[in-house]
């Protein structure tokens, strides 16, 4: 019997679980969808608006901290669904959450087929870790309707799968599209360094070109686009930033840069320590630790990073990171009223999860090797260049025979 067909019941359970939370979050949902409907209208038809939209969008509307790819997707959704595409967006983003889980499970198929022969730990981690992930994912996609975060996380997971399938061009394209959906996804770029040495420059080149093609037209049309990164939000009393001792009322001028520097630095450290599977966890964790906001949808990225680490980074999958993050960042605010205590809990949870991924003894971690040619590119560069642009058969693999 095909081992990939054993124990598929957990996938149906996760699908039904997502439907339950979709229906629970739909009443009063779409809290932030107006940013996407308004922004996409300004981008594609706002040249006559006051102030101007189009390529001046980010310079004139700095509150729209949303990448152009997300606005393109929002424009499509606006054309196919009611309420400016909100309902279509909620349904589509729910489906994306299930696609993300399916993609992670396929990553295990590519990287760790030995787990499929004894699937109990894998199924348990998918069911528990995936279950708590979907609870928060539905908050992100249905209650808030943050299409940009959804796309950034989707492309990040697709980049991981492309790396495992030895498709460096596709990996770079997906990393670039993640940044084009949400700028904070720059923290995921250390994944390019996880590729074999012969592939890294290709991943990096495709990512850089993809980012430039999306953002450079806005910068050239209006240099004020660059100042949009200074947009400030309220520094909430329960934020991890306040727990660190930053008591300014709004976002410090250095904060956005510090988030990216910390996220990329921790991601680089993870790669150097052969823990590339923790890059998503560390990148989102850096955002949470230094962000003045405490929105629940931030937690979805942390849970995705935790699940990626548990499935691909641990020798035996255990949903410890996922359950800890869910309890501390999602459940605790519902029962704890002390803002300062919540801030401390938020800070220390992320610090402990990040430290656990970076410092766990190697004997408890999986092998870090990614597929790729072992030869040096100077030996015969032509075959290597040809392989970069193709999509390997293993990327489309749906099971192990």
Using brief descriptors, characterize the structure shown.
mainly alpha; disordered N terminus
Mean pLDDT comes to 90
- Overall shape: it is globular
What Rg do the Cα atoms give?
Answer: 21 Å
The tally of helices reads 17
SSE blueprint and pairings:
Elements: H1 9-25, H2 33-45, H3 57-60, H4 68-78, H5 82-111, H6 120-144, H7 147-164, H8 168-181, H9 191-194, H10 197-221, H11 240-243, H12 255-272, H13 279-290, H14 298-312, H15 320-335, H16 339-359, H17 381-388
Describe it for me?
This protein is an all-alpha fold and 401 residues long. It folds into two domains: 30-111 and 146-230, no CATH class; 232-369, no CATH class. 64% of the residues lie in helices and 0% in strands. The protein has helices at residues 9-25, 33-45, 57-60, 68-78, 82-111, 120-144, 147-164, 168-181, 191-194, 197-221, 240-243, 255-272, 279-290, 298-312, 320-335, 339-359, 381-388. α6 (120-144) runs parallel beside α15 (320-335) and α12 packs antiparallel against α13. The chain starts with 8 loop residues before the first helix and ends in a 13-residue tail after the last helix.
